[in-house]
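New to this. Explain the following:
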Amino acid sequence: MGITQSYKRSPNYFDVLVIGGGPAGLTASIYSKRAGLKVAFFERETPGGKVTKTAFVENYPGFKKIEGYNLALQMLSQATELGVEFKYGNVIKINKEHDTFLVYTEDGSTYYSKTVIIATGMKERKIGAIGEDEHFNKGVSYCAICDGAFYKNKDVAVVGGGNSALEESLYLADICSKIYLIHRRDEFRADNLVVQKVEQNSKIQLVLDSVVESINGDSLVDSITIKNVRTNQKSNINVSAVFPFVGFDPMSNLFDESFLKKENGFIKVNENMETEIPGLYSAGDVNKKSFRQISTAISDGTIAALSAKKYIDETNWED
């Protein structure tokens, strides 16, 4: 049995449904629509994914430097102007019945599709400090570009040692009085050029070999307690905000192992972005892969869309 007439008559029936509106998802949507398919993408937050939370992007081909939000907006505009449908909401479950995928959303809606492309990306990882959850949105923020302006001319802390932490420190240095950049090691994982810029910025004080043990304050953040991992010595630093950038975890909780194979939470695909389920593809940061950049996410999205088109063309669908 193939796709039933009831599915095909539904206005919620699509050729391709994309779950996620970051670079991988938007690229998959654009390529699918240009292939003449009926396409919609779901996004529960701001379309553009983590790019919207990045102050500036300097390694995307064609742009020497562009604000992350503007880059994301251009991707979104390109998709919607082509006719891709944007469904704001949270997907909570996916099933496959015969040839049809059923996609359920939090508001009680059900959508039907010949193919699905997963592009759910990753979410910010917490540092695990005491008081982190209690002070969320009260001085703890995972987005400097979103909340940095609230701390103009104040002292803040950034936690992390990768590109995100260092780039956001540079962004905050144009707003805040002082930035304490706290990293548990004595060297950074970021690109050399970014490291050099941080080291040359007089507003950024490096606090290396250290971790944040607690984030303090009765209601709003007023200080942090740090511990040197070499000496175990503890000290307090007065800050008005803490911006953790210590990595990300895959957003794959939607799919349990009985439905889709994963490894450490990441979805396993082949070179065509195919999962083991025919018609189900995955692209971007949620995949098990070695490198995660905007450019690699876009590549994944392209491949997933073209693979989905090929699958649709080669499948005998029931009328």
Summary: The chain has a mean pLDDT of 93. The first helix runs from residue 5 to 9. The longest strand covers residues 110-118.
